[in-house]
Amino acid sequence: MPLLTSPFAELDLIRQPEQNNDPLQAFDAADEYLLSHLATQAPAADARVLILNDSFGALAASLAGQVQVISSGDSHLAHLALEKNLARNGKPFDCVPFVPASAAWQGPFDRVLVRVPKTLALLEEQLIRLQGHLAPGAEVIAGAMIKHLPRAAGDLLERYIGPVQASLAQKKARLLTATFAERPQAASPYPTRYRLDSPALELLNHANVFCREGLDIGTRAFLPHLPRDLGQARIADLGCGNGVLGIASALLNPQAQHTLVDESYMAVQSARENWQAALGERLADIRADDGLAGQDKQSLDVVLCNPPFHQQQVVGDFLAWRMFQQAREALVVGGALYIVGNRHLGYHSKLARLFRGVEQVAATPKFVVLKARK
Prior knowledge:
This protein is of the alpha/beta class. The chain has 10 helices and 20 strands.
């Protein structure tokens, strides 16, 4: 794989999660553009630079030791990638502080480098939070590949930060530079809330939660078919989002032990708050993790999963396949994985390669609910 070469460093970088013969690289032209632009400004060694949404640590690892750099984002995998890529390039794995998107920063910052996220609600929330954390004369520089840069990104920068200047295109990437100007402190529209009738729940959703305005249709198809009467079973909601599957399962299985896992810090924050609102002080393990990578083998009886079909802008079933593998490792013999998926994704045949029995529990014109037994 090619090296990321910038005025700050030359780095050998990997993506997370790792896969053999990965055709995708851990940086792109927008990362290169952000770094070369920052270099023209010759920041002092004591300049405080905040980096937002650095997918695999390309920006933070390049600037480590050059400025006072802090990285922040909503992806646990991005945090793992930063640590691995720092170590891979001979730097202490923890030399760049990482602040989850669910936690607060400590400004002021002289520069902020932003990779424009797929979810513009996350960008809006981050820009609102930046108010009060920018030093006089600070700049917020947002970068993206042009095909992934919506006009609304510039509008948000203008609304919350200050006047925006768009760069010329460079290798199909573009930068938007907002110069800090005092703005009235904005009230965040996040988290959002919506209600369910069955089960009767009000669900809170922080900015980067999938389908934060209402229940997604896959989960809607899944909810009536969740397993019940499982006694003291150990149940995991894998890729839990706002926690709706895990909470609904806990209501159906009052003696069961539940684990809710997601790689999004905002999803985990939402799930924790929703669990407490619905179930009070009932215990659960709700954590940010690389799927079930941190789960002991054969420690679960049931796994529930509505798997994703993309990682950032990349669409595919790689993450779903990996989640199925993790579920198989974590389940006891005789345990079961329940999933919902689009019919056209062909999950039945994929699961049959890993599990000894796969059956269709339910179907709609668009979705199937499958049970795979180990």
